[in-house]
TrEMBL record:
Residues 93-104 have a biased composition (Basic and acidic residues). One of its GO terms (molecular function) is DNA binding. Pfam families: MerR_1. It comes from the Bacteria. This is MerR family transcriptional regulator. GO terms for biological process: regulation of DNA-templated transcription. InterPro entries: DNA-bd_dom_put_sf, MerR-type_HTH_dom.
């Protein structure tokens, strides 16, 4: 991989660009919190060749949402389940919108 390839990946939300320490710092949380949400199967960090956890921007957004819920008093396991369900709902809504857009008869107004 060239330097140009590496820089291009920085725009990729799924590229595991952040170490556990950096991710915890960015989220203003502990590495233990990141391990806990990993154990709850909310996110699965990729591993570097040396076995270190690496996180993507997408995973950091998911972790930040879980942290909001936990900070609000929700138990970590429940927070992880809520975030998973929110993510599934968002994906279902996106698919539904695509389906409606693709199946709309020609000449129908956009709001129908």
């Amino acid at each position: 991989m060239t330097a140009d390839d590496s820089f291009g990946r920085l725009d990729d939300d799924d590229y595991p660009a952040y170490t556990m320490g950096r991710a915890a710092e960015m989220l203003n949380t502990t590495q233990g919190f990141l391990r806990a949400i990993g154990e709850a199967c909310l996110i699965t960090p990729l591993r570097s060749a040396g076995g270190h956890r690496r996180y993507s921007r997408y995973q950091l957004r998911i972790a930040a949402r879980a942290r909001e819920l936990v900070d609000g008093g929700t138990p970590i396991e429940a927070a992880c389940r809520i975030v998973i369900l929110e993510d599934q709902l968002e994906e279902a809504q996106r698919i539904n919108a695509e389906h409606h857009r693709d199946t709309k008869p020609p000449g129908m107004p956009p709001s129908a």
